[in-house]
Write a structure and sequence with these properties.
By secondary structure, the chain is α/β, with parallel strands linked by helices. The chain has two domains: 179 residues, Rossmann fold (3-Layer(aba) Sandwich), CATH 3.40.50; 170 residues, Glycogen Phosphorylase B (Rossmann fold, 3-Layer(aba) Sandwich), CATH 3.40.50. Helix content is 45%, strand content 15%. The chain is built from 14 helices and 13 strands. The strands form two sheets. It has a seven-stranded parallel sheet with strand order 3-2-1-4-5-6-7, sandwiched between helices. Strands 10-9-8-11-12-13 form a six-stranded parallel sheet, with helices on both faces. The protein is globular.
């Protein structure tokens, strides 16, 4: 592929780290592969305000606040910010002479895509979840193309030009030599617990109980509690009281290392988390966040477990004894651990960002508009 020197691509979206990091991967790929100018449109309250600049992205901010999962007051606030956000996004899109906008979902994407449509700028949607989010469902109605993270999502966009590309991940795919080094550097058994960027109150409460019940000497835990967790110290103390060596953080910047140290994962099945687990080839137990909008994490878990080395359980069906037995039996059987890891890695789509960029370039070369 080759790009015109004046090419400028906007990536819009955020709120959660999953949306933000998928957008960062697409933006970075566009710059590295096609030497295009890129910029990221987000909101100050979203994870993109922290993650995008830290990863070298040119971030511009527009007004905005979440709509989904909000009470009436929050929804009214989000609606009131929509018009100012569209105006702000129009300014940035015109100022940068933007050729195309990629929506990765989340509340910053809606106003940015509406602004692009008003300017005749083509829009490409990337929907990471098996059950599409509200913003991308609306944006897809006028998008030039829809890319999905799961095959199961294709039918949700009937009548649109749609293709499954997989989900760009926030970690790098280790080659064989790196995998060998990871295994060599592992210090005994380690289980990674992650509720995603915002955290899982359920896992924050239940995971220490699980390992207290398991009573496995030498086992370590790395626990990502989430930015919304106000009780990191309490979670750490619960592990200490259980006699379990645990590192508990509200956010982990170096997820490559966290995954590299892990023997297996217990996680909420956010789309980015699943993409990362697949790339790293780790067996996993998935616990969908019960409060996730439209219960989309359960759809993610079902889609992922149909093909990979994973199991899943609803929060309301959780029982400490069988879950502890599952973890213990897995750690006791290195051959099974490796086999499930291989099955999980078969789900990896390391070329997802490149595929999305190819689609964007085809749209631009064919002259498609919003």
């Amino acid at each position: 592929m080759s790009a015109e020197p004046q090419r400028c691509i906007a990536v819009a979206g955020g709120g959660t780290a999953g949306h933000a990091l998928a957008g960062v991967a697409i933006s970075r790929t566009y710059r590295e592969r096609l030497h295009a100018e890129t910029f990221f449109i987000g909101c100050a309250a979203g994870f993109e305000s922290r993650l995008a600049p830290a990863r070298g992205e040119d971030l511009v901010l527009i007004p905005g606040s979440p709509y989904a999962r909000q009470a009436l007051k929050g929804k009214l606030t989000a609606i009131a910010k929509l018009a100012p956000a569209v105006i702000a996004a129009r300014k940035w899109l015109r100022q940068r002479k933007t050729d195309l906008l990629v929506s990765v979902g989340g509340y910053p994407a809606m106003s940015s895509a509406l602004a692009a449509r008003s300017l005749g700028i083509p829009v490409v949607v990337h929907e990471a979840n098996a059950d599409p989010g509200l913003a991308n469902q609306v944006i897809a109605r006028f998008a030039a193309h829809v890319c999905t993270g799961f095959e199961e999502t294709l039918t949700a966009f009937r009548g649109k030009v749609v293709q499954c590309t997989g989900n760009p991940a926030g970690v790098s795919l280790p080659d064989d030599a790196e995998q060998a080094q990871i295994r060599k550097n592992r210090r005994g058994e380690c289980v990674l617990i992650t509720g995603g960027s915002e955290g899982s109150p359920f896992l924050n409460r239940e995971a220490p109980k699980l390992f207290a019940y398991l009573k496995r000497p030498g086992l370590r835990v790395c626990h990502l509690a989430g930015r919304l967790s106000k009780n990191v110290a309490e979670i750490a103390q619960a592990y200490k009281d259980a006699g379990v060596e645990a590192r508990v953080d509200s956010f982990i910047d170096d997820m490559d290392r966290a995954y590299g140290e892990a023997s297996c994962v217990i996680a909420c099945p956010g789309a980015l988390t699943l993409a990362e687990i697949a790339l790293m080839g780790l067996p996993c137990l998935l616990v969908p966040l019960a409060s996730a909008s439209s219960n989309h994490q359960e759809a993610n878990a079902q889609a992922f477990c149909r093909r990979g080395g994973a199991s899943w359980v609803r929060e309301q069906d959780w029982n400490t004894a069988p879950q502890a037995a599952w973890i213990g039996s897995l750690l006791d059987d290195p051959a099974r651990l490796a086999e499930l890891g291989r099955k999980t890695r078969e789900l990896a789509r390391p070329g997802a960002a490149e595929e999305i960029v190819k689609i964007c370039e085809t749209i631009l070369k064919n002259g498609s508009r919003a």
